[in-house]
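User: My instructor asked us to take a sequence, write out its structure as tokens, and then describe one feature of it. I'm not sure where to start. Here is the sequence I was given:
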Amino acid sequence: MTKNPPRILAFADNVVDCYRDRNVMYPGGNCVNHAVFARRFGAVTAYAGAVADDEAGRAIRAALRAEGVDTSLLRLLPGETAYCVIATENGDRVFVGANLGVSIVPPSDADLAWMATADAVHTGRSSHIDAWLGKIATLTRVSYDFATMHGEMKIAAVAPHCFLAAFSGGDLDREAAAALARTALSHGATWAVVTRGENGALLMGPDRVHEAGGEKVVPIDTLGAGDTFIARVLVGLLREEAPPQLMKEAALAAAETCLSPGAFGHGVPMDIDLTRMMTIDEIYATTTPAPPPGMMAG
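Assistant: Let's start with the prediction itself. The structure tokens for your sequence are:
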């Protein structure tokens, strides 16, 4: 059984989530959120990635430190901190545009050394480090957030490295969510979780499927709810908690996240340059992944 508390490193993805209509920005991004929520759930967490020396970068660093997340691996690079511009409609988030700034980086030697002492590393689609997953999986367990990437080609490439494969499936019915989880397990993942918003979530493991219904709340902001759920599941699996109980607690925690603005709070006045904002489709069409092992950028 994993020692208690588990040690988790969240790697790479970060942004400030900018609410232009309210002129406020919140630290966020899947991996930053995961580091914070896992810490709140009792894990020892660190965040490794890169920000710039600007107001957005300072907001991310300050929030992580305030939440008790180890920031010793957080790099400061010239350029612009990643941002995402968000509108809220009926409590749901709508992405307007973004820029990934300096956030896409490969693991450093110091990052790899921390990983070797960790019980798990959490990363995902938005970190753009798929070429490193094989290396990371030799050091520790991998938790990977596929977000809305449900294609079997992507799953077949990533799932063999995964202890936990996580998916966002708000548009999936129960049968489709279960089929998605089975696909991840068939390609080598040990566990697969599919979150379905207000319709709950399912967790599939070696023996059976565990489900949780959605907690009924009137959301203020759903940003970060899925990250909350996934973080609680990973911490629970590392502790070898009973899946039915950890799923119930994950659902409650995700609902609580919906009751406050931003993913985990720490809002500050918005201070970013929107002139280089791109659509989400443009970002994924043009983004260059982090260089793989053996081909580090000079």
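For the description part of your assignment, you could build on this observation: The longest strand covers residues 44-51. Try explaining in your own words what that tells you about the chain.
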